[in-house]
Amino acid sequence: MREERSDMSEDEDGGGGSAKSRGGGGAPPPFSDQVLEIVLENVLQFLSSRRDRNAASLVCRSWYRAEAQTRRELFIGNCYAVSPRRATERFRRIRAVVLKGKPRFADFGLVPINWGAHFHPWVSAMAAAYPWLEKLCLKRMSVADGDLSLLAHSFPNFRELSLICCEGFSTAGLAVIAEKCRHLRVLDLIEDYLEDDEDEMVDWISRFPETTTCLESLGFDCVGGAVNFEALEALVTRSPALRRLRVNHHVSVEQLHRLMARAPQLTHLGTGSFGSAAAAAAAAIPQGGNNVVDLVSTFAASKSLVCLSGFRDMAPQYLPAIYPVCASLTSLNFSFAEISAEELIPVIRHCHSLQIFWVLDTVRDEGLQAVAATCKDLRELRVFPLDATEDSEGSVSDVGLIAISEGCRKLRSILYFCQQMTNVAVVTMSKNCQDLVVFRLCIMGRRRPDHVTGEPMDEGFGAIVMNCKKLRRLAVSGLLTDKAFAYIGKYGKLVRTLSVAFAGNTDLALMYVLEGCTKLQKLEIRDSPFGDSALPAGLHHYYNMRFLWMSSCKLSVRGCMEVAQRLPHLVVEVIRERDEDDDHEAVEKLYMYRSLAGPRNDAPPFVEIL
Amino acid sequence: MEGGATYVSDLGNLKATELRLGLPGTDAPEKPTPENPRGSKRALLEANEEFRGKSKSPEADPNGQEAAPMAKAQVVGWPPIRSYRKNSFQARKAEAEGAGLLVKVSMDGAPYLRKIDLKVYKGYKELGEALENLFKCFSLGELSGMEGCNGSEYAITYEDKDGDWMLVGDVPWEMFISSCKRLRIMTGSEARGMRSSP
């Protein structure tokens, strides 16, 4: 790419120069400029990485224009960082949009409902500007049924819709999409909140066209109500291109069996409940034997399956049915299945090719040891807690973490919930797993120290940033002093995302991070004793960041106001949910982000923009 | 009103000022069913006023020096698990119990309702915790009626067999679940209105 750019520069200089001399002392003839831009466009169209494109657009005006004309994919990491109008005016030929809204802590109830991130202004602008839009991916946006309807009616060539952690729409909106988007290939609903009242659910599955569809991926495991199964089966039957199907927990294992028989070409399967339809599961056991045998042969026939998920209400006797596909599985999500180590081991020991594994802590350290023994190619591990409270009995511990680090040396990403941990285990992982890019450890007990030595967890996390040279994302927990943050600031030079909760002693901790982490883009902090005097440490860097979130820290309006005044292109939001009768100065929640759009005009009453 | 007076004096003891998350009326010593439920409602309203004056958010202290009775208060959004995941397990538990007693729960200002199975809970305290969990994404904070968001109170009410809206917590638990048809978490002025009704 770089060679091309320098070649182009030479050509441009040469061409421009000669044109100028030919033209005498007047303005260069526009025609050769246009020719150059067309040539540029033909080259730039091959640039796909948005970072490369952003760099190219900075070269000169000509490149800026050419890049804008040739960009096909628009990525908006913060829907408030730019206005829809400005984005659609600069980029005229967009075919695919990724749009993200609320800050991540909204997932945990820290952002009040009606905060914002409305899809409506975006879909309205795009409806006018991008009639050829094909793909849309929204994350943490507030999407109304009306927005989905506008989408369905505005983009005749629409192909792919992914909604991740969105809310505000219902099955009525899905029905319009199904009915009107005749070229739909992908409809992926991932962890969304649908607004349905159970009495008013719409049979959206029946609204897909009656003819053969071009559906490749259909995922609705988050849709709360039961879908019309006959319609679903018929849909699967007339969708020969279907490769990914994720059903919700209302689909029983018997129904799943029928769907799989219709779609043996599936590569990704979300299995729904994986339990028997009959409420009295015990009564089903006599037939259960036959059912399992049938199910095994169905799985055996699904030679393309590489990804399994679901298992929302799994009856353990059905688990052996998946043995035939285990060896070829690259991704397995058991994180909704309450299985024990004994139930896991016979399955996991077949999974030699596994790269992604999500599981509940019910499998305990023993289960993780089995994973470590077999899954030598594991890249991503997530261990979720069954009982997500601080004082629940810990099921996995430092033992499991060490085992994983010793067995899965290629690990790149880990999310690990536990009740207690040791520095030794974390240090061990930092040395064994040098490829780690994402390290998220959640010790659920707040401020819990190393359970063996009683010391803070500083050394463990310090080792992670020191030894894992590729680390880009870090989430810390447990008892942490300022020292941990000194380590992070000193060694975490590639860290882009940092999540902090109940940690640190003084403002120094935050200052270390703001000064040291030169690539920091997303910083989210809660319940840590950081105050106003730490904020200026980041003034040189806030424009490089996507956002800073701080809640239940020690900030005041004065401190935040200073930042707002020094940095005019930073939107500084103070979110106040309750009337602090005693303290109007205290800032409960701070959310600040760079923006070309200025303060947003849709802020609800509880948001104050400084 | 007599029943009401007794209730208020009961609350004069130390237990009344214990800072907990829970519906008013939980853990109170067994008292005879008030003859007039509406009368004792007023006593509860007064009790709520008392609580509101004295209580403070349990999560307010970032230095971790929580007062002993508050030490185990659950904090909003911690551990960081998405509600989607939490609710999947709760819903499954409710469904597994069989028919159960499913009632709709609405909250003022929330765009959608939830449904819970009353049979799953042993008493008002568990119910309060569950409701808090369900509506956590609306930044509910405490659901006890003691202190709410935006400086306004919350009141958990239910519609009984007669179609009347009652404040939750007045009657014994068993009587409550047999007469409760749906729940509503009231906010703001209406909640205050409930409290000041004679």
UniProtKB/TrEMBL annotation, chain A:
**Stored Gene3D superfamilies:** 1.20.1280.50, Ribonuclease Inhibitor (3.80.10.10)
Output the InterPro entries linked to this UniProt entry.
COI1_F-box (IPR041567), Leu-rich_rpt_Cys-con_subtyp (IPR006553), LRR_dom_sf (IPR032675), Transp_inhibit (IPR041101)
Question: Pfam families, alphabetically?
Answer: F-box_5, Transp_inhibit
Q: Where is the Transport inhibitor response domain?
A: 93-138
SMART domains membership: LRR_CC
GO biological process terms on file: auxin-activated signaling pathway; SCF-dependent proteasomal ubiquitin-dependent protein catabolic process
Q: What is its main location?
A: nucleus
Instruction: Please provide one cellular component term from the Gene Ontology annotations of this protein.
Output: nucleus
Gly residues composition bias: residue spans = 15-26
Q: Please report the name of this protein according to its UniProt entry.
A: Transport inhibitor response 1-like protein
Organism of provenance: Elaeis guineensis var. tenera
